[in-house]
Amino acid sequence: MTTIDPPRFESGRPRRGINWEKWGWIYMRASGVVLLVLIFGHLFVNLVAGEGVKAIDFAFVAGKLADPFWVVWDTLLLWLALIHGANGMRTIVNDYATNPTVRRILLGAIFASTAVLLILGTLVIYTFDPCPVVPADQLDMLPSFCPAQ
């Protein structure tokens, strides 16, 4: 007869430390609920409210990123979605990559790509300049709220 250790036991001994799998599972559920609100709010504002998809241009994006509310909204959307996706990919790798070396390489690639995308995405959101310096013949391309240079 084969016995299975209780979940809090590993090799017949109680497991010590933080249960990262449990917290990853909880994160996936909590972030999924918050992401539903963030994504549908994003889609509603961008595609339904106002003039719809035809109104999305540089000025629309610049106007949104000039408002601190939308900066926080987009930052939350970026971070939660990327970490949620990376955690899902981590779970898939842990389930299907049987070779420990391949698993380590894949998990490292997931971590590295997630870190790079989080850094770059956050930099774009927080350093976006809606009124860049442009040549005089292209001033008509600036959003209406930018002062003439």
UniProtKB/TrEMBL annotation:
* InterPro entries for this protein: SQR/QFR_C/D, SuccDH_FuR_B_TM-su
Q: Where in the cell is it found?
A: Membrane
Looking at the record's lineage, which domain of life comes first? Bacteria
Give yes or no: UniProt keyword Transcription regulation: no
Quote the cellular component terms of the Gene Ontology held in the record: membrane
Q: Which GO terms describe its molecular function?
A: metal ion binding
User: Which Pfam families does the record associate with it?
Assistant: Sdh_cyt (PF01127)
Provide this UniProt record's keywords sorted from A to Z: Heme, Iron, Membrane, Metal-binding, Transmembrane, Transmembrane helix
Q: Which spans are transmembrane here?
A: 26-49, 69-93, 105-128
Q: What is this protein called?
A: Succinate dehydrogenase
Question: What species was this sequence derived from?
Answer: Conyzicola nivalis
